Amino acid sequence: MKLTETFRSALDGLNANRRRSFLSMLGIIIGIAAVIIIISITQGSQRSISERIQALGTNLINVGPGRGGGFAGMRARALGNLFTLEDGEKILKKASAVKRVVPVINTRLLLQYQDRNVEITVNGVSPEYQEVLNFWVEEGRFIDSRDLRSYRTVIVLGEGVANDLFEDVDPLGQSILVNGPSSRYKFRVIGVMQPKGRVMFSNFDDQAFIPITTAQKRLLHTRYVESFSIQAESREASDEAIEQIDAILYQKFQDDTKYRIFSQEELLSTMSSVMQTFTIMLVGIAGISLLVGGIGIMNTMLVSVTERTREIGTRMAVGAKRSDILLQFLWESMVLCLVGGVIGIVAGWIGSTMIASLAGWATVVSFPAVALALGFATVVGLFFGIYPANKASKLDPVEALRYE
Amino acid sequence: MIQAINIKKIYKIEKVNIAALNGISLEIEEEEFVSITGPSGSGKSTLMHIIGCLDRPTSGRLLLDHGEMGKLKDNALAEIRNKKIGFVFQQFNLLSRSTSLRNVELPLIYAGVDRRERAERARIALERVEMAHRLYHRPNELSGGERQRIAIARALVTNPSLILADEPTGNLDSKTGEGILGLFQKLHQEGHTLIVVTHEKYVSAYAQRIIHLKDGLIEQDERRNTT
User: Fold this and answer.
1) Which residues on adjacent β-strands are paired with residue A84?
2) Which of A118, A242, A308, B103 has its CA 20 to 30 A from that of B85?
3) What DSSP character marks residue A397?
């Protein structure tokens, strides 16, 4: 007998008891929908995380003080008088895979304009900061090398800071007061950054930028810098750049716990491996609901086989082979699972779209997720269908015909 | 042609052997109309199942059209049932959710006949049992006699060399039963071989030959001329 005919017999069988078919499908529908939603959420957030990390700048490598011990590395931070501007210049000169080096000092300071004030992170940086962090000035100009040379008291505000301090007033050219630990300076606003938003743990819009030399000499009275943001020549070169930087720094400190080098690549792979663990765990949980759904299907199929014992006997009497009966019932459970799977995919897709619009989470319903869900449904259908179908095909025709 | 040689069937129920057939030998020629009678428990249904290749004898041989059935595997027996044998049951055994046409098509589906030919042949079979006006009815929309006619059409549709009926009138009133038997007679005249298992006297009156079973043995084999 043709496959399509066994398939049609299966459809007839399911059609005869639509409510039961649907109810036993429900477990699969819920399981598949859960798988789809979970995968779409994790993939969506993975994508947005990696987009944001990418937005931090291309081929970015960070060099900071090492976690030399103490509570959460606080000791190292306290003893962080480590790097100088010369280290940065050395790295730029000696490490061939390095394209740009930006020394950074950041400190929390109080900014005042007339009767308004804000306490924010102020970054002392060099002009290359824009290119390295892929973060650009929108109005006015960014810090340039002349600002650096003459320790000018100029400041570039993040978009959020500008709004908070100035509201309707054009901030360019205005003077604001910056309160250092021991002194107070009047700074001239020379630019406002483009909006960038929150990336990882810091909100770029709530920061301000001043020349690093100004931060060192005028505000903090130090000759050290806190960290370096370094741009590698290319994405491929970033591993090489890390090795070169490491060699240079090791030469100076003779202790690789004092400093720490981490690339964007590393950050990305750490994040994605965390996300992957989450995904696997959640999909595993959803998988359990699929398992329960599968058992429901098996139960329905067993009841169906018992109920239709006489029909099976009749089919055998008119010439159905055991394989025909097996296929018919296997088709039934497969159809239940596949139809349930398709409904579940649609439900999951609607669900994740709703989550995206209601909770504002990024969700991505991807082809692999859909394929995975359908694959799951098929496997469940086969696995839980084989036992009832086998039972049906093994019936003795004479006894099946006698069955009341 | 059916040849049964010393057929025995022994059921083992809770370690006790119960013999349903104790050694039956018989020959049934083509175009015969045979009735197998006997009290309940005499083994007539068992004999019918064995002749119909639904069951296997414990010992003895069965030949259908000179072919040895005992050597065949389950799949081959299913094919024999499909091609050579048509069953008519007391309970009709129609698929309750399917139309008459679909019910009659069932053996052709398993024979792998394509859709158009199937419908055509099922229609012809239904015409032969005078049910051409009930093609798209479901069994629950039909009377008992009509249902049995559908079942007979299903048995006929593959043009089998043998039609086996197990108490075909058992669930019908005697008037309807007479109609069914009349149909059998007509099929017999058209050249079909028929075996009807029954315990009712008036049923066997239609047959050419009556085989009477008792305790798993042939007690009487009587031939008569009805035409």
Assistant:
1) A224
2) A308
3) H
pLDDT greater than 60 at residue A358:
yes
d(C-alpha A126, C-alpha A132), whole Å: 10
Query: Taking 60 as the threshold, does the pLDDT of residue B74 lie above it?
Result: yes
Lowest mean pLDDT segment, chosen from A70-79, A377-386, B115-124: A70-79
Q: What is the DSSP string of A187-251?
A: EEEEEEEPP--EETTEEGGGEEEEEHHHIIIIII--SEESEEEEEESSSTTHHHHHHHHHHHHHH
State percent of chain A over pLDDT 90.
Answer: 32
Handedness of CA A275, A277, A283, A289 (dihedral sign): negative
Q: Residue A301 has what pLDDT?
A: 92
C-beta atoms of B107 and A319 within 8 A? yes
pLDDT tens for residues A56-76? 766 888 888 876 554 544 544
Longest dimension (CA), chain A: 105
Domain boundaries, chain A: 3-52+270-402, 83-257
DSSP letters spanning A86-140: HHHHHHHHH-TTEEEEEEEEEEEEEEEETTEEEEEEEEEE-TTHHHHHT--EEEE
Query: Does residue A78 carry a pLDDT above 70?
Result: no
Q: Please give, rounded to a whole number of angstroms, the shortest distance from the CA of B43 to a CA of chain A.
A: 14
Contact B78 A311 (CB under 8 A): no
CB–CB of A398 and B93 under 8 A? Answer: no
Q: Which of A269-283, A289-303, A318-332, B188-202 has the lowest mean pLDDT?
A: A269-283
- Average predicted confidence (pLDDT) for chain A: 86
ipTM of this complex > 0.90? yes
User: C-alpha B171: how far from its chain's center?
Assistant: 16
Which CATH superfamily groups domain B29-41+75-223? P-loop containing nucleotide triphosphate hydrolases (3.40.50.300)
Torsion sign (Cα): A46, A49, A52, A53: negative
Task: Kindly calculate the radius of gyration of chain A based on its CA atoms and give it in whole angstroms.
Answer: 33
* B9 close contact with A: CB closer than 8 A: no
CA angle A125, A128, A132 (to 5 degrees): 100
User: Residue A323: its chain B contacts at CB < 8 A?
Assistant: 75
What pLDDT digit, counting tens, does each position of A146-182 carry?
Answer: 999 999 999 999 999 998 898 888 999 999 999 887 8
Q: Mean pLDDT throughout A247-274? A: 82
User: Which of A102, A203, A212 shows the shortest CA–CA distance to A147?
Assistant: A212
Distance, CA of A345 to CA of A154 (rounded, Å): 56
Q: Tell me the average pLDDT across B36-44.
A: 89
Q: Which residues of B touch A5 (CB under 8 A)?
A: 109
A322 vs B contacts (CB less than 8 Å):
74-75, 78
Q: How far is B114 from chain A (nearest CA, A)?
A: 9
The answer to whether A225 and A88 are in contact (CB under 8 A) is yes
Residue with tokens 């663990």: A277
